[in-house]
Each structure stands twice: as structure tokens, then as C-alpha cells.
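Sequence in, structure out. Go.
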Amino acid sequence: MKTLICCFAILSIILVGVPVQAQTWELYDHFKGGFFAQGFIDTNKWNGFVYPTAFPPALYRGENGMELQFGRLRIHNHDYTGDVSGLPPGVAISPTVKSFSSEQNLYLNLEDPVGINGIKGLKATLNVLRAEAFSPEACFPQSFPYTNARARLFGTFFQTTGGCDVNAFISVERAADSSDPFYTLNVKGSIATCTHASYCTAFTTLVLPLIQIGTVHLWENFDLSISFDEQNSQFIFQLNGTKVYVPYNQPPYALNLENIGPPIYARKAISAINVFTKCPDQEASMDVLFDNVQISRK
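Output:
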């Protein structure tokens, strides 16, 4: 499970927000990998890493990769969990623990300066080639976070009281308990807080379901964006032409977030992530294309 390290705001959502200044988007990267010439990820713009949180590693198996393909960035992430019976001899573990919660993240981070030139919005075109999540019947009912395969845009946007960075993300996902047709995926958004010590790789467990933005289908292009509207104290989640406005500093929130400055750890990223609950023999797969990444500085 992710460690509880900070606090969450309970969110209320309005579909028609206060007037916002028109955003100016600028192209950050349209990946140039060709069908025959794969090309290279521009290391002047991106740095990437794999962030596994499976403990111990013997309980985790997967096939993961990032490469330029078909003129776009492809991130594919196929993982599954084991159980304690598969541990090698000599590994100490509590006899009451039958399995472990685990995550496998493939991140690609943008260079994000702080201050007035910091990135206030992140946008990209996605196309999901495969999204599957499976849990055995014995694992249900699952409490959140349930097993799912997810692709997302996210980042830290400002620092609030207590030295916590405020992080927001918009994601497309397939959950193990979904009753939708296999080709239907949900687009959701959320806001969390994280500490500098974690480099915003760990957050609190959500206290409310993720915000539903809309749905998309496999093998179709769609645009996602997440923006920080500082002037009106709100985040804007967008799927194609659909916008959802989420204010973050007004009652009746459990935590009154106060915008006190740029984030401690300025970070914006795209990623594919598979999330597993504390149950053995689960499997999840996300295979997604990213293209036309854009940023906004106001």
C-alpha cells in the first residue's frame, strides 16, 4: 500500500467554473520515432525511470518498456503479482501476510522550472492500445485503490501549508471490477498532497472515489489536459471538449489549501502505471501511445 504521508482535500466539483483567462499552449514534444526509424527520446526534454513499489521484489513480475514507435511515444507496462509461497528460502516475512500490494510505474518527466516560468498546464494526445486488469474472485470485494491499469498526465503545481506539494493528475484507466465493455475506458482526475522527501512518488490513499471526467475507447485518439488556474484557485481537468473545474481552497473542504508558493519539487510527467491490491495472482496491462505533448505557462 502507499504510505500515508500527508493530507487530502475532499473535493467538490462544478461543471461550469468561474471565467478563466484563455490558455496559451505551446508544443513541447511531438515524438519523431518513425515506423522504420525508431529515433530516440530527447534527453534534453525528458528524463525517465521505473519506480517499483513491490516488496519484496520476488513477488513482482512484469514486462515494461518505453520507445518511440509509429511516430509516437509508446509506453507498455504488463505486470502481475505472486504470493508468499514463491519467496526464496531465507526471506523473512510475517506469517499473517499472504501477499503484497504493489505498483509498477514508468515515468517520463519534463524539465519544469519553478517560479513565473513554471508549467501551469500539461496536455497530450493519447491512444490506448491495450488496457486490462484482473483480480481473482477471492480478492473481491476490493477496497480502493482497486486493481487497475492506468495512463496519466500529472504534476506538482504549488506548495501549501505544512511543506506539502499539491499534485493533480488526469488518467485513463481500466479497473478489475469494471462492468463496462472491454473497449470502454474511464477518464478520471484527482488532487493529492505529497512531501518533498518522497519526491511526490507517494500520496495519501484517496478518501473519495476519483472524479469521473468521461469515457473513451480503445484504439481512438483523445486529448487530455490538466491545468492549474491560480487566479481562480481551481484545477481544470479536460477530456477533448469536456472541462471539469475543481476549486481547492473553499469550504466545505476538510483541508483548506493555501497557495503559498511554487512547489518544492517541481515536477510534470506522463506515465503508465499498474496498481495492485493486497491479494495474490493479479494481472494488469497498459499499452498506450502519447503524442503532441503541450505545456502552458499561464
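Check: Confidence is low (pLDDT under 50) at residues 1-16, 54-58, 93-101. The first strand starts at residue 25 and ends at 29.
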